[in-house]
Amino acid sequence: MQMRSCITASILLVFFSGCTPTQIEQPSPFIPPATPIAELWPAPVAPLVSAPAEPVLYSQQINKVWAEKCVRIVDGDTVLVLNAKHEMTRICLASIDAPEPKQPFSDAARSACGELCPGKNCEIHETGKDRFGRVLAFVVVDGVNVNAELIRRGLAWHYRQFSKDSELQQLEDSARESKAGLWSESSPAPIPPWEFSQKK
User: Fold this and answer.
1) Is residue 172 part of a domain?
2) Structural domain span for residue 158
3) How far, in Å, are 17, 18, 28, 96 from residue 23 at the CA level?
4) Residue 86, by phi and psi: left (phi above 0), alpha (psi -120 to 50) or beta?
5) Which among 17, 128, 140, 183 has the fewest CB atoms less than 10 Å away?
6) Residue 159's pLDDT is what?
7) In this predicted structure, what is the pLDDT of residue 198?
């Protein structure tokens, strides 16, 4: 019995003699792989700007086109638009003139403009600026040229003094013939806003 215990002790001594603490390989600490910077801060996505609607009714030269959101209707031919930087721009609808306040159909023109524009994304097709520095433009919403639509409904004049657009003139002529909007009143005959303003 004593000899068996000695033999067992000898075997254990031989087994552990080759496994000193300095010889046991220690596991390396886990170092997670570096996350690429591009994954932490993805590149910003450029805002989508819709292409100009086709067809757009006008024959004038367009200086530039940009997208905005219409936030307020000033009157039948003037709107306020807001860009992504929360900057407000006053837009005068080019080539048309809607009835002035206190003129017949002034409220109807403003309501129609409000029906077509407010709260909607729109395309501003700028033709230039007036003598007061205000932007003149065609406003296009869902493919509808708001300037032309107001003339078609008989709620605005083609501003012939500053526009030679034959298509807009044809729309006015058609509205006159069908007695649409303000052309339904023949007596007294509708007074163009530019003449009305001079009489005030």
Assistant:
1) yes
2) 64-199
3) 11, 8, 15, 93
4) left
5) 17
6) 94
7) 81
Structure confidence at residue 59 (pLDDT): 57
Render pLDDT for 92-128 as a digit per residue (tens, 0 to 9): 999 999 999 999 999 999 999 999 998 889 999 999 9
CATH of the domain at 90: 2.40.50.90
- Residues in contact with 24: Cβ distance below 8 Å, sequence separation at least 6, in sequence order: none
Confidence (pTM): 0.70
Q: How many domains does the chain have?
A: 1
What is the DSSP pairing of strand 88-93 with strand 135-141?
parallel
Asked whether residue 16 carries a pLDDT value surpassing 90, the answer given is no
Q: How far apart are CA 94 and CA 158, in angstroms?
A: 9
Quick check: helix, strand or coil at residue 125?
strand
Residues constituting the chain: 200
pLDDT over 50 at 70, yes or no: yes
- The 8-class DSSP code of residue 133 comes to S
Q: Are 118 and 72 in contact (CB under 8 A)?
A: yes
